[in-house]
């Protein structure tokens, strides 16, 4: 739909729950992977969509040693102090930001 390259941690592709999800199979082959500590993401990432909680957001920020790209953080749990967006309507919210 959107012309973008999506990076995920290599461990995401190895997650058994995602491997069983038929929706994931449709996008799996289009994902690029990286490994924490071995790949330099600084010049490759323009925008971060973070799914998780506050800890996930802090971890994503840690991956960038100099300047952190803009981050849109969605909380998947009941409360997120640093993750203000709800996942329920993520597609609409991401589209609004990208336009």
From TrEMBL:
One of its GO terms (biological process) is NADP+ biosynthetic process. This is NAD(+) kinase. Gene3D superfamilies: Probable inorganic polyphosphate/atp-NAD kinase, domain 1. Transmembrane segments: none annotated. It comes from the Eukaryota. InterPro entries: ATP-NAD_kinase_N, NAD/diacylglycerol_kinase_sf, NADK. GO terms for molecular function: NAD+ kinase activity. Its EC number is 2.7.1.23. Belongs to the NAD kinase family. It is an enzyme of class 2 (transferase).
């Amino acid at each position: 739909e959107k012309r973008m390259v999506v990076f995920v941690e290599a461990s995401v592709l190895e997650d058994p729950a995602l491997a069983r999800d038929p929706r994931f199979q449709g996008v799996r082959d289009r994902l690029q992977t990286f490994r924490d500590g071995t790949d330099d993401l600084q010049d490759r990432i323009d925008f971060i969509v973070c799914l998780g909680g506050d800890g996930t957001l802090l971890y994503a920020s840690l991956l960038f040693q100099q300047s952190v790209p803009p981050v849109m953080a969605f909380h998947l749990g009941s409360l997120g102090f640093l993750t203000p967006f709800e996942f329920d309507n993520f597609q609409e919210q991401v589209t609004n930001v990208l336009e």
